[in-house]
Amino acid sequence: MTDEPLQPPNPQPVERPWQFSLLNLFGLTTVVSVCAAAFYWNEVIGTMVSFVLFLSIATFYRTKAVIRTAAPSLRARSQFRLVGFGVVTSFVAALGSLVAFCVVCTGAGVFVAAAQPQPMLPFIILACLLGLIPAVIVLYRGWPRRPTPK
Fold first, then answer.
1. What is the rounded (10 degree) CA torsion for 82, 86, 89, 91?
2. Is the predicted pLDDT of residue 6 greater than 70, yes or no?
3. Neighbours of 95 (CB within 10 A)
């Protein structure tokens, strides 16, 4: 026996926002490659695949956050109903974000098509980037947070 004090076991790592594991990064790479292959095959199918994947991934991660940060009144529900509540509200929030993106992107795209600048591609990219702004705002505002103590 030595006189050294026993070291406490290492605590579990704290989950930090925007910290991803290799599994998440490989999954993201797979999603991007599936979307790229769908766009290469057909633009309409690529757009639909992108929409479905966005809705699925956003719903999944927001549902996890809803369950993790559920208010005490929601904790009284069964696990099945809590997950169902999280999936429905998350799908609606992700769909709202997608609609906000499409409205702004389409509006800017119509304006670009009417103006017909040469070359057109940078303006189309700018329209898509403008569409990201309301989409991110809707997702951020709809993200679940821990209830504040009164």
1. -140
2. no
3. 16
Instruction: Quick: pLDDT tens for 93-131.
Output: 888 888 888 888 888 888 888 888 888 888 878 888 888
CB-facing half-sphere around the CA of 135: CA atoms within 13 A: 19
Long-range contacts of 72-75 (CB under 8 A, 24+ apart): 72/147
Q: Cβ of 129: how many Cβ atoms within 10 Å? A: 12
Q: What is the pLDDT of residues 32-82, one digit of tens each?
A: 888 888 888 888 888 888 888 888 888 888 888 888 887 777 777 888 888
Domain ranges of the chain: 48-141
Residue 123: CB partners within 8 Å, gap ≥ 6? 112, 115, 117
Q: At residue 32, what is the residue type?
A: V
Q: In one letter, which amino acid is 97? A: S
